[in-house]
């Protein structure tokens, strides 16, 4: 059986700016991100948001994303990650599968609440769920078995949270981006171009030429706005696609996956993947296959 913290996890009012916490990343779970305070830009694929207290971001998980807090600011946020599979049965019974629509259809959605009543509702629910998960983990350590009643309570709290978020999304609270500063417009243009071309041979000269920018400006404006170098972003895009192909296209050979994602050398491909993911590409694929088989046993 899956452990609770593999189905859902919550972190309430986390503070700090440890640099290793803010790597460009993706994950299988959906995420509810709540911004409390600080000075932070949030990069989602090729979009950049200047966050305000009370902002809620709904992430599909698979899209590359990364916060970029200003060094020295008191950066406080809450995050809740959950597997939609864990909710399938209860949402089906309730006749409410549409509660996942904001994550599946709104393309990584920003809700700007200004800490109004709806924002306080989401804040409170994440706090409650985080407390229940901690209580469940403590009880499991004591008794060496899960508490079905607590797990049911977590599910119900999450359904209430998703219902509130669904209602908020219908009210169109997501603020349409206003006119962005020129630097942010250029950084987004660079990110968009990279997302369209990451599988090709990419150089700073090529990006600058195609976007009619100087090499120096291209390099520095992207780093300034996103906190990420251009090549780090390129490699993040490639890594995300590699993980997708390893999992979703098991008949492709590793060399085919490497070529399809812009790696010119198998040695570089294998070394980079192992460095970033912690396992070789072949072991990653094998682990994902084993996970699917185990989930099938309990479905």
Task: Report a brief summary of the structure.
The chain has 299 residues and is α+β, with helices and mostly antiparallel strands. It has twelve helices and eight strands.
Spatial strand order of the main sheet: 1-7-2-5-8
Number of domains: 2
Structural class: alpha+beta
Q: Could you please say which CATH topology of the largest domain applies here? A: Jelly Rolls
The CATH architecture category of the largest domain equals: Sandwich
Biggest β-sheet description: 5 strands, antiparallel
Work out the strand percent.
15-25%
Shape: globular
Give the fraction of residues assigned to helices: 40-55%
Number of helices: 12
Verbal overview:
By secondary structure, this protein is α+β, with helices and mostly antiparallel strands. It folds into 2 domains: 4-170, Jelly Rolls (Sandwich), CATH 2.60.120.280; 182-292, Arc Repressor Mutant, subunit A. Helix content is 52%, strand content 15%. The protein contains 12 helices and 8 strands. It has a 5-stranded antiparallel sheet. The protein is globular and about 60 Å long. The model is unreliable at 292-299 (pLDDT under 50).
List the helices and strands and how they pair.
Blueprint: H1 4-7, E1 8-15, E2 30-37, E3 40-44, E4 47-50, E5 55-59, E6 65-69, E7 76-82, H2 88-94, H3 101-105, E8 109-112, H4 117-143, H5 148-170, H6 182-197, H7 204-210, H8 215-226, H9 230-248, H10 254-260, H11 266-277, H12 281-297
Antiparallel strand pairs: 1-7, 2-5, 2-7, 3-4, 3-6, 5-8
